[in-house]
């Protein structure tokens, strides 16, 4: 079988009523696109016309083609240029006013925003103007619209503007679920250096996010509290090769969360017997422990040393490992000696050497008590 017959039959399978078969066809189209001359074979001449013909069968098949085109576009700017016709068709859907089709398109747009050339394409098609248009005011589109903004801004936070933050602020006041989605998106953006830099200047907005986040962690339902604590961990994300200026940003944001009252609340959750809540709170303590300002807070927190070295506080595997990770980030920190005294550091080394699953003997427990 020559390649033209094979490709013709492969493209026809995109229309198959069996979803599994159509998905396999999509995967094979994407594999061929990665081969030498694969893009030209698929998206030029008669095969390009075949794809256009295939799209016309129904909306389900059209979205299979859109999804395939988006995935291929991620390969390179050249690949995006080859599938531009099909991406343009997707934008026609986005401009159609059909709420259901627009909802189905959001995930593809979010995926497209994961590359710089994809974002350039979206900017060229005035994606932000489109998202602000009257059609997109429907409450049904709000979660997808928020996530689309978030996906684009995560990869290119310098696009953040007062107008965009005003939209987030409005979404913030709709309902608790949308509020939480908004907070998660903002904190996800804050997990990157460029995101921290872009949002630091919007002090009042971050203050509102932090205040609400702190309140949700203290008083929200369990699932909301867990998601909220994970947001705090993203907010305080820091790697050793990043600029030290972000540490001062984090200290400022910690103050917005409530400073001592917030860490009191986190340790209050740590003392609860519910594993999922307990471990989420441990992750917050770990994120605070990675930074000098956080180590100072922990060093001055009443009972922190006794709690850290007491193996009995952890009953589940995740808890033992996360507490051990707190010891690890402290022990490997360049600022440990500046924030903790020698007796603590000696105990910390022993604790770490024993590993996460060490079981204290009765004599150790008595000595610790």
Automatic annotation (TrEMBL):
GO CC list = cytosol
Origin, by domain of life?
Eukaryota
GO biological process assignments:
proteasome assembly
Q: Which family does it belong to?
A: Belongs to the proteasome subunit S5B/HSM3 family.
Q: What is this protein called?
A: 26S proteasome non-ATPase regulatory subunit 5
The record's annotation in InterPro entries points to:
ARM-type_fold, PSMD5
| UniProt xrefs under PANTHER family | 26S PROTEASOME NON-ATPASE REGULATORY SUBUNIT 5, 26S PROTEASOME NON-ATPASE REGULATORY SUBUNIT 5-RELATED
